[in-house]
Specification:
heterodimer; A: alpha/beta; 8-stranded mixed β-sheet; 6-stranded parallel β-sheet; B: alpha/beta; about 30% helix; globular
Chain lengths: ~425, ~425
């Protein structure tokens, strides 16, 4: 691993301070020096990256990722993909996230028992490129809940992207199976979802089932995540210590109080992209805005925006990411979430960026070494052409992300400034 | 269309002609112009690559590839890998072949029903890098034959890398299933193998009725049949039933040789010598010391194979390199070793060995005349090689000597050229 010195850059360090001019030295997989002002770091024995005034910032963290969702226009299409194609797809998607500057992703659920675990292992062993990844289970759900895609005459579980349980003992067995496979996170579908036929305000899983899942998972030191749109499901999350709360649209004041009281522990990843794009931008795939309004999505978006603003005010951590991987929310376009945070929730660009970096390090359980440009931190870095604080949308543009470094190694090195023509090949000395 | 002009190269065109200095213009996925000597091609609109005297030759073709074999020491270990890992492994291996200059591979058999098909499709869609690929079925075998890894108390078919059939109707079903999945070739295990001592290389296991049904079903859909055929009787079965791709053919008699010669415009032989040679010379590392390898019959088979294959070469039967890489003793990527084996054991000249891996390779890929040659109109699968492989075949085993690898007109590996970039190494 070569040591790399970034010079002539503006540093967005993810601590909350305004960007400053300076140099950053990476040694091995860590940031060893951060200097501000005039160049002060020694430039020998290193690869020097001349930033030409570009912004150096922490790699972004996606807090609610579904590598296995396949950019299709329906939930049932997810499981039409056989396991061989599905694992190659997941590998491809993992690379797409890294390409777009997401150096960490938190798996929110996978579609077949082992897809997430296998991809995480393949990334960690260097077999495939991809972000740091926490692997999830399938969505554990109940009959008729989100994730159950069986039909009365086709009861085969392979049709469902979720794992269907009924009762605490089935829950125990299912959770243990996923833990055996090696997941980092157990995902529970606590609330409904309009498009899946059960309203978002409903809460179909019993406390007994949730309690068993939480006990089994925590016994092995793993975390839980929940699809929790209803008011009651958010409270279930707090009651049972489910750290990762996805959506939380219909939270009520009791839920807000509970979440605020436990705000050091919980993260909320609303996945606004799904609500916004399903409501208004999916007509190309037959989901007309009127029909989506009738289903309840327009109202949920309005309620969710108000709920999230209240959470912000109470200092509850809200993170970007969520439910990319449908035809109208393609993988890789996830930085739109930062724009949504500014536009819909009234975050400042600084707040939106911190939610993707500083909070991201925390949701990855490495807040003291990930998500900031600080000495001793892991070298997950982006070199960005422009100032994302001035225009948060530039992070959606692959061409503006000049370089992506993960764990001290370039996934994408800075581009060639100019190519020499004609090119004479470099040959081994013996033949030169 | 993008054009690339290679100048200052020695062209090894693999027609059999000696290399010559010249220039090659590639446009789109084809070779548009080839000129020799002092003639120059117009530079306009082309990216010019000055080859600095390197050799430009066709990409290599592997005639007997098992992407799904996982560099293990035993046959059982192939199937210990779950489907998800196995698919990623297979995809990774596809890239390894391209990295080593194999721009085409003929799938010889896969280990789970769909691995080969899925990886071929992913390559063709551009989802993963890999060579041109013809996807194979699993090895169809009979109870107790090569490929049956079940145990009496563990009868589950998932343990076997082969598919067990018994009788013509089970064969028909197995072949149709593979064809439904989209294979390019159906693989039959006709003979035994010394790796399975209870079913050694001399023995022949499948009935003519079964073979006939398999060939009929595959040929009806316009697909090919390939066979594991080490015994003389199995080689004859291949010719009798119109099996196009014959693997091994170690043991032959004059009847078998006559049959092969009579069908020489139709059949290909890919002996896959690496297992035999490696186990005899380096087997100790893998728990098979030389005396055991000899007891397993490997020395006898090597002697017989050398004699059979030399005779085939004499009779003009097409013998191609490649085969059975993907074991601990012959890991994926080392396949160009076969060219040296052809020279050392079978009496090929280096030129003959290279032509068998390129021009004959184009023929086994079913693209005769347009693949495996550097000629105008041919598909642009090209290697830029640092040195002269005719004077030293080992160069082709050295990835670092492959300066550029082009498949279908696109650089899989672009030559290193002097460019200025935003980053620059500053020595200490």
């Amino acid at each position: 691993m070569a040591n790399v010195l970034f010079t002539n850059i503006r540093i967005f360090d993810g601590t909350g301070t305004q960007p400053f001019a300076g140099d950053v030295l990476v040694q091995g997989n860590r940031i060893s020096r951060v200097s501000s002002g005039v160049r002060s770091l020694p430039a020998t024995g290193v690869t020097v990256v001349e930033g030409l005034g570009a912004t150096l910032m922490p790699g972004m963290v996606e807090a609610h990722t579904h590598f296995a969702w396949n950019d299709q226009p329906s939930l049932s299409a997810i499981q039409r993909m056989p396991p061989e194609e599905h694992i190659l797809w997941c590998a491809h998607v993992a690379k797409r996230y890294l390409d777009m500057g997401w150096t960490s992703c938190l798996g929110a659920a996978t579609a077949k028992p082992r897809l997430d675990v296998v991809i995480r292992n393949a990334i960690e062993s260097g077999q495939i490129p991809g972000p740091r990844y926490l692997a999830a289970s399938q969505e554990i759900t109940v009959l008729g809940g989100l994730g159950d895609e069986t039909l009365p005459h086709l009861p085969y579980p392979e049709f469902s992207f979720g794992a269907i349980v009924s009762g605490p003992e089935e829950m125990r067995k299912t959770v243990r199976m996923f833990l055996k496979y090696g997941v980092d996170t157990i995902k529970l579908n606590l609330s409904g979802e309009y498009i899946a036929g059960l309203p978002a305000e409903f809460t179909p899983m019993t406390d007994e089932e949730v309690a068993i899942a939480a006990a089994e998972t925590k016994m092995r030191g793993k975390r839980l995540a929940a699809h929790a749109r209803s008011a009651e499901s958010v409270k279930q999350c707090v009651r049972h210590g489910i750290e990762l709360v996805f959506h939380a649209s219909f939270i009520d004041s009791e839920g807000l109080d509970m979440l605020e009281a436990a705000k050091e522990k919980h993260f909320v990843a609303p996945g606004l992209a799904w609500l916004i794009n399903t409501s208004f931008h999916a007509s190309k795939w037959g989901l007309m805005p009127d029909a989506m309004k009738a289903m309840g999505y327009h109202r949920e978006l309005e309620v969710a925006v108000e709920s999230l603003k209240k959470m912000m005010k109470r200092g509850i951590r809200i993170l970007p990411g969520g439910d990319y991987g449908f035809a109208w929310t393609e993988h890789g376009t996830n930085a739109r979430d930062l724009e949504y945070f500014v536009k819909y929730l009234g975050m400042s660009p600084m707040e939106a960026l911190l939610s993707a970096t500083k909070f991201g390090g925390q949701v990855m359980m490495r807040g003291d070494e990930l998500g900031q440009v600080r000495e001793g931190f892991l070298a997950d870095l982006l070199l960005v052409d422009g100032d994302p604080l001035a225009d948060i949308r530039i992070l959606q543009d692959r061409a503006r992300i000049l370089a992506v470094m993960k764990d001290g190694e370039f996934h994408r090195a800075p581009p060639a400034r100019q190519a020499g023509q004609p090119a004479r090949v470099t040959r081994a000395p013996a033949f030169a | 269309m993008n054009a690339t002009l290679f100048t200052n190269v020695r062209i090894l065109d693999c027609t059999g002609a000696q290399p010559y200095a010249g220039e090659v213009l590639m446009r789109g996925n084809r070779i548009e112009r080839v000129v020799s000597g002092q003639r120059v091609l117009p530079r306009a609109d082309a990216m010019v690559i000055d080859g600095a005297g390197a050799t430009l030759m066709p990409g290599l073709v592997e005639a007997h590839t098992h992407f799904a074999w996982n560099n293990a020491e035993t046959l059982q270990d192939i199937q210990r890998m779950p489907t998800e890992e196995h698919t990623l492994w297979t995809a990774g291996v596809a890239k390894v072949y391209l990295d080593h200059g194999f721009t085409s591979c003929v799938g010889a058999a896969t280990a789970k029903p769909r691995l080969d098909v899925v990886v071929r499709n992913a390559i063709n869609e551009g989802l993963i890098p890999g060579p041109r690929y013809l996807a194979a079925s699993q090895e169809i075998t009979v109870a107790g034959g090569l490929g049956d890894e079940t145990l009496p108390h563990v009868p589950w078919p998932e343990f076997s890398f082969g598919v067990n059939v018994s009788g013509p109707e089970e064969m028909r079903r197995a072949v149709r299933m593979a064809l439904k999945y989209g294979v390019d070739s159906v693989k039959l295990n006709l003979s035994g193998d010394n790796l399975t001592p209870h079913a050694d290389a001399h023995t022949t296991w499948m009935s003519d009725e079964e073979v006939a049904v398999a060939c009929r079903e595959a040929h009806m859909r316009g697909k090919r049949v390939a066979a594991h055929a080490r015994s003389a009787a199995s080689v004859k079965q291949c010719v009798r039933h119109g099996i196009e791709v014959i693997y091994h053919a170690s043991y032959t008699d004059s009847e078998a040789l006559d049959l092969l010669e009579g069908a020489k415009d139709r059949v290909f032989v890919a002996p896959g010598l690496s297992v035999i040679i490696k186990l005899l010379s380096e087997g100790t590392k893998y728990g098979i010391p030389p005396e055991r390898a000899r007891a397993m019959g490997y020395q006898r088979e090597l002697d017989a194979a050398c004699e059979s294959l030399r005779e085939m070469k004499k009779r003009g039967i097409r013998v191609l390199p490649g085969g059975d890489y993907g074991f601990a003793w012959a890991p994926h990527g080392a396949n160009a070793m076969d060219l040296e084996y052809f020279v050392k054991y079978l009496g090929f000249t280096p030129m003959e060995a290279i032509v068998s891996a390129t021009r004959l390779g184009g023929e086994i890929m079913m693209k005769p005349g347009e693949l495996g040659l550097v000629r105008e109109g041919a598909l642009a699968d090209l290697l830029l090689v640092d040195g002269d492989p005719l004077s030293n075949l080992a160069i082709l085993r050295d990835k670092t000597r492959l300066l550029a690898i082009v498949k279908d007109g696109k650089f899989h590996k672009a030559p290193e050229v002097a460019t200025r970039t935003m980053s620059q190494a500053v020595p200490a």
